[in-house]
Design a protein that fits this description.
Layout (H helix, E strand, L loop, with lengths): L2 H6 L14 H11 L2 H6 L3 E5 L8 E2 L10 H4 L6 E3 L9 H18 L7 E4 L16 H7 L2 H17 L4 E2 L23 H17 L3 E7 L18 H8 L1 H8 L5 E4 L3 E2 L2 E2 L4 H11 L5 E3 L4 H7 L7 H11 L13 H8 L5 H17 L22 H4 L8 H14 L1 E5 L10 E5 L15 H4 L16 H8 L4 E5 L12 H9 L3 E7 L25 H10 L4 E7 L8 H4 L2 E6 L5 H10 L54 E8 L3 E3 L3 E10 L5 E10 L11 E10 L4 E9 L5 E2 L5 E3 L2 E10 L2 E11 L3 E3 L8 E6 L3
Parallel strand pairs: 1-3, 3-4, 4-5, 5-6, 6-7, 7-10, 12-13, 12-14, 14-15, 15-16, 18-26
Antiparallel strand pairs: 1-2, 8-9, 11-16, 17-19, 19-22, 20-21, 20-25, 22-28, 23-24, 24-27, 25-26
Keywords: Hydrolase
Protein name: Glycoside hydrolase family 3 N-terminal domain-containing protein
Pfam family, one: Glyco_hydro_3
């Protein structure tokens, strides 16, 4: 049906609005009816902020962009609304109404009545005022528990969908290569298998709620030189294939992610936003991805401004579109008039516009945005009167008791006990000295993409929107009979030690000292951790190490408690602290979790998703290093961590025994089956994390000394035992060979069942036989763990 006829007769159903028609037919009909301007309008977003009065959203004036005239744009349509909830503080119900009114206006303004797709951040919870602030992704990795991450993501997705959001910009699947990088807190860890499994679980949860999950940053952002944000990446094709890409591969294949965001990085001179071999050749032609590729904010313009591979906006648009970027975010800059003019004069083929448009419209149809019964009013406003905005205020709860319970569960699982001389759990101390900059700071539990730290700090005087009990408050509640003396001592990064004498006096008068240290999350210099907050060394920020050393000298047992976004070298505290408790920005319930570990109410089960360095200057270094990357007599720099990847202690003890192997040989397309018994030999219930590492002694290209290929959590009561059977496919031994293809080679392998990357408990030497075998993205990705009660 002609679009103008349909507009004059809304009751007549156009093919593109017919939900019974095949999606491809609906898309074809719509594309055929659209002008060039209407096509390109679907390929960009506009950055907006919802109204706290329930009126329409207002365009956000970003310092990098000119003001946007919505009245001029809307007659041809609009592809996306950027961060309606994550731009200014707004009551969730009024924000939902504001978004709904804007969506109704957008649909009414264009010939095809197509609304925009609304996206927002959801890195550690929906980044909206009043929404639950969950632990940051580095804590997800520390939990080693995909199931709880899946449930968390589903809860986040339900909250987002209820107020009219369609797409979430998460998870971050960058594998840490240098802990100095400010965005370490946003990552899941330093191991691609851990990142892949946890990230895939997040995608599954978010997508189950109807939210389009966006994988970022594709690919290699975290491999930047010297850990600097938005710097060139030093990375060969093998490192990219075997370390950087597997998490994305898994999240697309098993998670069903429907969107991918490019990385800002250029690798060997090619920006990701201009890399056709990456965004089209690998992502689509090889992996079969059929969703949308969205630009990281301003990335298309950066092809001109930062990379110098495009002469002007039209050239940047054509380059990105050809590479495979379908949608320009956050604002229209290059995909509007510059792209339209370049297509009209033949510089950019219209087929490229149609290719991207097809993906965008397919996604909008899948979201129901073109169905005849589409309603701009979201589920959260069902049964309300949109004509009475003030009556809506406070009606939508994005921080429900169920959300908080889930946030606490994850926070408790993610706390890592690094060291303990028996001081923990604390046995009814009479006098506690609580000292440090993070002891009485509500936001010490939050990462840089939490709403209070990301947006709230720009609006002083605005309430936080969620309850953030400080460690001082939760400790006082956890130890009601103790006298808790608080001294700040120093700031996170101000270098001020004027409170040092008072801190030492408090420590000397106490039974135990708790040193609450770490980071302040922020953006672009406003914090010590977060986007743009890169570190020159891994010393504790400011004067915190000086404070810690003075407390160690005071003579009272010191429990070092870290609320941080990255691991830090702790100097003397590694060996002289009575105990060390590590948490990575554990979210709004985080201080309850830490207090529970200190008291023993919670038996810690977290494991390090990234090693803790022994010295502050040994970066870049990860446990995935090859033999030449280990400590040696020919270098003065020892990269050996103080606490390795996968490390974490418990208040109980586990015995690992009775390793058996079904066969010590298997063909290169076969598998091995191992079994072991794990017993809780302590006096209280606890959870052990069984980690499986693969060591390849001889390969055709240099391999890491070992790499994680599987893990599982085992929860046991005192005296209880489980028999674990582990099936290990030969495909897990594959790597990128000399010819660039992934290969499984015959030869010996060590399968190490371990409590950390430095604590192998049981090892099976096996041999792969037969011819070398090439595998691809359809290879088996997982070892399978089965738990059964152990027989006596």
């Amino acid at each position: 049906m002609n679009a103008d006829v349909a507009a004059e007769n809304p009751s007549a159903l156009s093919l593109w609005n017919d939900p019974t028609a095949p999606v491809s037919a609906r898309v074809d009909a719509l594309i055929a009816a659209m002008t060039l301007e209407e096509k390109t309008a679907q390929l960009f977003g506009v950055w907006v902020g919802a109204s706290d009065e329930g009126g329409e959203v207002a365009p956000h004036q970003h310092e990098m962009e000119e003001a946007v005239d919505l009245d001029a744009l809307l007659p041809t349509g609009l592809g996306q609304l950027t961060r309606p909830f994550g731009t200014v503080p707004v009551d969730p119900a009024l924000g939902a109404l504001s978004l709904a009114r804007t969506q109704a206006r957008i649909a009414a303004s264009n010939r095809f009545r197509i609304p925009a797709l609304a996206h927002d951040e959801c890195l550690a919870g929906f980044a909206a005022w009043g929404a639950t602030a969950y632990p940051v992704p580095l804590s997800w990795g520390a939990a080693f528990d995909p199931d709880v991450i899946r449930r968390m993501a589903a809860a986040i997705g339900r909250d987002m969908r209820s107020v009219g959001v369609h797409q979430g910009l998460a998870p971050v699947l960058d594998v840490v290569r240098d802990a100095r990088w400010g965005r370490v807190e946003e990552t899941i860890g330093e191991d691609p298998y851990l990142v892949g499994t946890i990230g895939t679980a997040y995608v599954q949860g978010l997508e189950s709620a109807g939210i389009v999950a966006t994988l970022k940053h594709f690919a290699g952002y975290s491999a930047s030189r010297a850990g600097r944000n938005l710097a060139p990446a030093s990375m060969g094709p093998r490192e990219r294939a075997d370390v950087v890409l597997p998490p994305f591969e898994m999240a697309i294949r098993e998670g069903g992610a429907r969107s991918v965001m490019n990385a800002y990085t250029d690798t060997d001179g090619v920006p990701s936003a201009a890399d056709e071999s990456l965004l089209t050749g690998l992502l689509r032609d090889t992996w079969g991805f059929d969703g949308t590729v969205v630009a990281d904010y301003f990335a298309v313009a950066f092809l001109t401004l930062l990379h110098g591979v495009a002469a002007d906006w039209a050239d940047a648009a054509g380059t990105a579109l050809h590479a495979g970027i379908d949608v320009e975010l956050p604002n229209v800059k290059t995909y509007g008039a510059p792209l339209t003019e370049a297509v009209a004069d033949g510089r950019v083929p219209e087929e490229l516009v149609d290719r991207a448009l097809r993906r965008v419209l397919t996604q909008k149809i899948a979201l129901g945005l073109l169905d005849p019964d589409w309603d701009a009013l979201p589920a959260a406003l069902d049964g309300t009167d949109p004509d009475d905005p003030e009556a809506l205020r406070g009606r939508v709860d994005l921080d429900s008791p169920e959300n908080r319970a889930l946030a606490r569960t994850l926070a408790e699982e993610a706390v890592v006990l690094l060291g303990n001389d028996g001081t923990l759990p604390l046995a009814r101390p009479r006098r506690i000295a609580l000292i440090g900059p993070n002891a009485d700071e509500p936001t010490a539990v939050l990462g840089c993409y939490s709403f209070p730290q990301h947006i709230g700090v720009r609006h002083p005087g605005t309430p936080l929107g969620i309850s953030l009990p400080t460690l001082r408050e939760t400790l006082t509640a956890e130890f009601p009979d103790a006298d808790v003396t608080y001294v700040r001592g120093t700031g996170v990064d101000d270098g001020d030690l004027s409170g040092l004498d008072e801190a030492v006096r408090a420590a000397r008068e106490a039974d135990v000292t708790l040193a609450a240290l770490g980071d302040r999350a922020g953006l672009f210099g406003r914090g010590t951790s977060g986007e743009g907050c890169d570190a020159e060394t891994l010393d504790l920020p400011g004067a915190q190490q000086g404070l810690l050393d003075a407390l160690l000298d005071a003579g009272t047992p010191v429990v070092t408690v870290l609320l941080a976004g990255r691991p830090y070298a702790l100097g003397r505290a590694v060996t002289e602290s009575a105990a060390i408790v590590q948490s990575f920005f554990p979210g709004e319930e985080g201080t309850h979790a830490i207090a529970g570990v200190l008291s023993g109410r919670v038996n810690p089960s977290g494991r390090l998703p990234i090693g803790v360095p022994r010295t502050p200057g040994s970066q870049p270094s990860t446990y995935l290093g090859a033999r030449l990357a280990q400590a040696s007599e020919v270098s003065d720099v020892d990269p050996t961590p103080a606490f390795p990847f996968g490390h974490g202690l418990s208040y109980t003890r586990f015995d690992w025994t009775d390793l058996t192997l079904d066969a010590d040989e298997a063909p290169t397309d076969g598998e091995f089956t191992l079994a072991l018994t794990v017993r809780n030999a302590g006096e209280r219930s606890g959870t052990e994390v069984i980690q499986l590492y693969l060591h390849d002694p001889v390969a055709s290209v240099v391999q890491p000394v070992q790499r994680l290929v599987g893990y599982t959590r085992v929860t046991l009561e005192p005296g209880e035992a489980r028999r674990l059977t582990v099936t290990v496919p030969a495909d897990l031994a594959s790597f990128t060979g000399r010819d660039g293809r992934r290969v499984v080679e015959p030869g010996a392998l060590d399968l190490r069942l371990a409590a950390s990357s430095a604590d192998a408990r049981l090892t099976a030497r096996v041999v792969l036989t037969g011819e070398e075998r090439h595998v691809d993205h359809a290879r088996r990705l997982h070892a399978t763990f089965v738990q059964k009660p152990a027989t006596a």
